[in-house]
Predict the structure.
Amino acid sequence: MVKLLEGRTAIVTGGGKGIGAGISKALAAEGANVLFNYNSNPDMAERTAADIREAGGTAFTMYVDVADRDQVDAMIAKTVELYGGIDILVNNAAWQPNMDIDEYTEEDYDRIMDINLGGYFRCMQAALPYLKNSQCPRIINISSVHGIRPGDFDVCYSMTKGGIKMLTREAALEFAQYGITVNEILPGGTKIEFKSGQTHPFKHKRIERPRKYDLSFMKPGTPEDVANIVIFLASEKSHHISGASIIVDGGAILL
Amino acid sequence: MGTNRTALITDASHPAAAAIAARLESEGITVINNYPRRSDKGAIGEVSNGYAFDTWSLADMKMLLDTIISKRSGVSYLIHTDNVILRSKLEDISEQDFKKALDYNAKSAFITTKVFGEHMAQKRDGAIIYLSTLHDEKPTGCAFAYSTAKGAVKMLCKEIALFYGRKGVRANVIEADYMEEQRELLDSFLSPFNYDAETKIPLKRLVKAEDIAGVVSFLISKDAAFINGADIRLDGGHMLYYGDR
């Protein structure tokens, strides 16, 4: 059976763990060559790459801080050297320190902007010359429902996700002349593997409700739920979708 | 309403700032004008028509708050008016210009909120208004870093409406259409949104400074006491159109 993304090349930032790992694996399973970076957890990145190779896919992982222009340029150059071009860019790497405004220092603010917004901008700009040469160029930005609805646990995380919404729309408008589509995905709560010692982000006490409230349909999503949308957006089938924001939260936004 | 009330306008060089100040002063509110030193790196501190502190600097904003407190009881209303349209294409903007656009528009909102929001929360009284733009939803086609920053400000407002709302401080965004003074900066061949304005806006005119001043006055008034975390669109209906029709 012909795979949807056979022979195409994808970059996934932060693709070694969590939602990013699910995306990397799904892209590789559909036949794409995948290069993903890691920043904080080389073991999980190597494990993801090994999983992909064991399943017959192609993957390469390297350390890259997306806040550093030279390192981003090196990641783009390595991808082109290994696979000859770039067809799909999935921006996913983000920092989420879970702090309220009174806890954020000015340095923390600068850092999260540089990763969560600057990283997306930098990777798009650096990948653009190669995406222009692709037959089916795609940019997919992983955002969050907290780009449209506050999360109440990290003021700057939500700011960056609100920024990604406009970064996506502007890029979709500007890059349309090159045939590049640009879309964002807004996952809600997603079940991921935490590093030891890391805590669940919700810092404010949850409301206790009587049992009559049946919210059993409200389950956290999985990285695969997000990856399924990435695969569709990366495929030719999505050619008429650009500048869109797709919520993947099982309907939680309805509550 | 305005007795012993003070409003801080964070960037008094905004084309609507004078009208906002005049409106609030007519209601008995004392207005403090600040002029961020973006191009004119003159002396920091008190100037003839107000203050000159950089809104994207935590140290500067703490200094401004200390200076204000030394002379009066404090600030009741924060009117964030920093709105710097830096024309740029994603394809070729420099790292420096990208950061500048984010700092001037988004970091200034964050820093002024951090300093003056906490100050107002301690008094459990106050209101924050972010004078923003339609381009926190609609792409410009010519100033991507500007709209990216304004998208961030929109979410700052919603988070703050929760966080400081619990402490008696409301926060809202005004999504204003562009004024005549801002029009040239938003000209784009990628989007006819700007070019079509007079034809498309049902009210057949651009937004005026007085329109903006009226909404600011309303949002800080008692009549707006239950409005929190809202996006008030001020565009005469401009955003109702779809596509290139």
In short: Strands of chain A lie at 9-12, 33-38, 58-63, 88-91, 138-142, 181-187, 245-248. The longest strand of chain A covers residues 181-187. Chain A has one domain: 9-254. The domain at 9-254 of chain A is CATH 3.40.50.720 (Rossmann fold).
